[in-house]
Amino acid sequence: MLSKAKTLQAVLEMQKLFPDAHCELDHETPFQLLIATILSAQATDKGVNKVTPKLFAIYPNAHALANSEEEVVIECIQSLGLYRNKAKNIRLCAQQLVERFNGEVPRTREELMQLAGVGQKTANVVLSVAFGLPAFAVDTHVERISKRLQMVKQSASVLEVEETLCKKLPKDLWGKAHHWMIFFGRYHCIARKPKCASCPLLDICAYGQKEV
Q1: What is the number of structural domains in the chain?
Q2: What's the CATH number where 74 sits?
Q3: What's residue 157's pLDDT?
Q4: Shared-domain flag, residues 77 and 121
Q5: Do the beta carbons of residue 194 and residue 210 sit within 8 Å?
Q6: Catalytic residue list contains 121
């Protein structure tokens, strides 16, 4: 596996490629980010961004969504995969926010993960993006490139990927590194036909060296 120093070096190279990397889920509030992130499971950010303007125009906050009609929510998000289950989850999540947190999004992982539809990745996204707290969300892009670059074990679970990256990277970089790695995975080290020949990390990437 890559050493701690090499892992940091690789992530900083990703920063050079994508210095403006950011969360691509459109949102104006922590609540909207939470709902958009729940909707993004097994969906693209672009797909989510197509449905949330209508959804948030009708239900801009937890109190509004908590009192929503399920069929109206379904109509807003039905272009997404698993839309019926997601409609159920986001309505229940909003109700829980109102009942337990006065409609406000909590700022701890433990409280966030008590909400319907919220797993560790979603909680980490909200903590990092909405509140600027140190958290490292592992999505498919982060998992793929961390394994391709041998930052983590090939057999590592998502939780183990998160734990390893958090150990290898400075805490104050977790949130930013998450976005650099996502952009690197989304636009450069893509799942099929990664751009290995032009990659600045080719010299430390055994996967890429086999591809070129």
Answers
A1: 2
A2: 1.10.340.30
A3: 97
A4: yes
A5: no
A6: yes
